[in-house]
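Lecture notes, part 5. Sequence design as translation. It can be helpful to think of inverse folding as translation between two languages: the language of shapes and the language of residues. The source text, in structure tokens, appears below.
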């Protein structure tokens, strides 16, 4: 079986290198590439690859959102995340979005080749360190992935989700029946806990963790 692959990464040099590496693998055909999330979704629908190799840090539509859209619009296509992000938040966000695999950049050709074949056959695969973390979580008796940003309160996470949806502070205040001052305080607390300096950075972090979608 030849695995048809679409490569998605916003760094042209890395993307070119990855395309070259994958094309050299036996049983792998690179059918296309994309440099942002929106293009990834379009190309996935157009080309119907067996696997999309997906980075998460993408301009515009990020990798989590693009994964969710591809799974919805091209359900026969598997998404294999290949990223530098190794925290619990992006891993579980990718799982919730429908990714079938999660590898860290730095994986060698053999590991990537095995992962491509695995997800193309409908199975799930993780990098060793990621797999250990996922197994440890479920071994602890949890039945669902943790909520993103455990350092935030439920209200702060709710406010961040609305910020990631593009709502202004007055709109959030109206939605949650809070005063604008209270919302400003929540937003300020969120910025501090996430170590971000502005709304754009907060939205990027939130969307990487799966908030602000739907």
């Amino acid at each position: 079986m030849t695995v048809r692959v679409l490569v998605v990464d916003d760094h042209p040099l890395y993307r070119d290198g990855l395309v070259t590496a994958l094309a050299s693998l036996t049983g792998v055909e690179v059918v296309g590439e994309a440099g942002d999330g929106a293009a990834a979704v379009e190309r996935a629908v157009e080309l119907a690859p067996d696997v999309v190799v997906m980075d998460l840090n993408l301009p515009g539509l990020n990798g989590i959102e693009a994964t969710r859209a591809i799974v919805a619009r091209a359900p026969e296509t598997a998404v294999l995340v290949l990223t530098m992000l190794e925290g619990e938040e992006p891993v579980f966000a990718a799982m919730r979005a429908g990714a079938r695999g999660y590898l860290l950049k730095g994986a060698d050709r053999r590991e990537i080749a095995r992962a491509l074949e695995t997800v193309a056959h409908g199975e799930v695969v993780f990098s060793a360190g990621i797999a250990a973390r996922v197994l440890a979580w479920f071994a602890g008796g949890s039945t669902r992935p943790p909520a993103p940003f455990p350092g935030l309160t439920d209200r702060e996470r709710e406010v961040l989700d609305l910020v990631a949806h593009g709502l202004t502070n007055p709109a959030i205040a109206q939605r949650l029946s809070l005063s604008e001052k209270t919302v400003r305080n929540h937003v300020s607390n969120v910025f501090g806990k996430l170590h971000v300096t502005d709304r754009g950075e907060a939205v990027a972090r939130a969307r990487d963790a799966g908030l602000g979608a739907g």
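The translated text above is only one of many valid answers, since several sequences can fold into similar shapes. The radius of gyration is 18 Å.
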